Amino acid sequence: MQLAMIGLGRMGGNMTERLLKGGHDVVVWDRSADAVKASAGQGAKGAADLRDLCARLSAPRVIWIMVPSGKPVDDTIEALAPHLARGDVLIDGGNSNYKDSARRAAGLRARGIELIDSGTSGGIWGLENGYCLMVGGTREAVARCEPVFRTLAPPDGFAHVGPSGAGHFVKMIHNGIEYAMLEAYAEGYELLAAKQEYALDLRQIAAVWNRGSVVRSWMNELAERAFARDPALAGLRGYVEDSGEGRWTVQEAIDLDVPAPAIALSLFARFRSRQEESFGARVIAALRNEFGGHPVKRA
């Protein structure tokens, strides 16, 4: 089927390649001319700008947006708007806040345009293994785009989970779970590394855990790969960013009165990873010294 892809970064570029391999007719645009050229070299049709992109598509159009969440999505939709018509479908495949997705869908629907929010998981491995797609939107719009979803996803890796906003809500919770899983693995491996008298081989332990253990997972398979390349991870700093979904998940837990301590603490652990020195820890040291005369380490 014919569609367009806007945004050809690590995800959008690989998704375009997978769609082309699946026999789809893909028109592409990105701010980087080199990215457009690369996709054109794989068989996509490069557009000069968003107007040209829309002109190259037969109505009703299907346009997949793969840009960072927030203002870039709003800006892209606003730039597309003059060139869209009733019956067109936009798909936001990034990590947008589900409330933004519901708002955008309502605004576009009033103009006869549908917005599908597609929570997309798979990372750089999606090209080879397929992408897990959690899709929100009207039944009619999702059914129309189903050939695209089926090509991108592995078998049984696509689900229409609910109305507009539901896809990005499910993806938000998915990423919150990811935060907690990563933190659990991190704490476990740090404990193993700290038991220095055993000189434990972390790659060996990751490998054996991946074969029959209840803690086996694709995430731990990646840990096995990482330890094989750098057993002590000496080439990395322990600095961990967050892309927003963990914060949104914790806020949702607060709003819904749902206890989510593991996810919340995993988010806070990322904050701590970015501090060269903790002011809060200095406060604790000072107070312990004041009330109990406990020794402190001077700066």
Could you characterize what this model shows?
By secondary structure, this protein is α/β, with parallel strands linked by helices. It folds into two domains: 2-163, NAD(P)-binding Rossmann-like Domain (Rossmann fold, 3-Layer(aba) Sandwich), CATH 3.40.50.720; 171-279, N-(1-d-carboxylethyl)-l-norvaline Dehydrogenase, domain 2 (Orthogonal Bundle). The protein has 13 helices and eight strands. It has helices at 10-21, 33-41, 50-55, 71-80, 98-109, 126-129, 139-152, 166-194, 202-209, 218-229, 245-255, 261-273, 279-292; strands spanning 2-6, 25-29, 45-46, 62-65, 89-92, 114-121, 132-136, 158-162. Helix 5 (98-109) links the parallel strand 5 and strand 6 (114-121). The model has no long low-confidence stretch (mean pLDDT 96).
Calculate the mean pLDDT score and round it. Answer: 96
Classify the beta-strand content into a percent band.
5-15%
Order of helices and strands: EHEHEHEHEHEHEHEHHHHHH
Major sheet: 8 strands, mixed
The strand count comes to 8
- Rg over C-alpha atoms, rounded to the nearest angstrom: 23 Å
Question: CATH homologous superfamily name of the largest domain?
Answer: NAD(P)-binding Rossmann-like Domain
What's the topology here?
Blueprint lengths: L1 E5 L3 H12 L3 E5 L3 H9 L3 E2 L3 H6 L6 E4 L5 H10 L8 E4 L5 H12 L4 E8 L4 H4 L2 E5 L2 H14 L5 E5 L3 H29 L7 H8 L8 H12 L15 H11 L5 H13 L5 H14 L7
Parallel strand pairs: 1-2, 1-4, 2-3, 4-5, 5-6, 7-8
Antiparallel strand pairs: 6-7
Helix pairs in contact: 5-8, 8-11, 8-12, 9-10
